[in-house]
Amino acid sequence: NALDLWSQTTEKTYFFPAVTRTADEDRNYSSIMNDINTYREEMILKFILGQEPISKFDEYVEVIESMGIDEAIKINQDALKRYNAR
Questions:
Q1: How much of the chain is in helix, strand and coil states, percent to nearest 5?
Q2: I want to staple 21 with a disulfide (CB 3.0 to 4.6 A). Which of 14, 25, 54, 78 is the partner?
Q3: Could you tell me if 67 and 43 are in contact, meaning their C-beta atoms sit under 8 angstroms apart?
Q4: Closest to 43 measured CA to CA, from 32, 52, 55, 33
């Protein structure tokens, strides 16, 4: 139900605007997220199939943090600040 409600909204405030990262930010972001996305996809499948116990979820989060997710978030936040300042 949540997905249906979210996708039916007409309020623009619910949509992430088309922000633009600088070339350096984009390279750094892509490098970080390529590794994270690969790891995330592998681990989610392992959790779903029971190959990894859900008790290891906190460890999974720690690995993603060690891969630089905070830097990727900061890059997007900086791009959003520039967008909002226009």
A1: 80, 0, 20
A2: 25
A3: no
A4: 52
Cβ burial of 74 (10 Å; 0-12, 13-18, 19+) is middle
Q: Which tens digits make up the pLDDT trace of 6-55? A: 677 666 555 667 889 999 999 999 999 999 999 999 999 999 999 999 99
| 22/76 Cα distance (integer angstroms) | 10
- Find all residues with CB under 8 Å of 63, minimum gap 6, and list them: 39
The answer to whether the beta carbons of residues 65 and 36 sit under 8 Å apart is no
The amino acid at 13: T
The closest alpha carbon to 64, from 53, 76, 56, belongs to 56
Closest CA to 41 of 49, 72, 26: 49
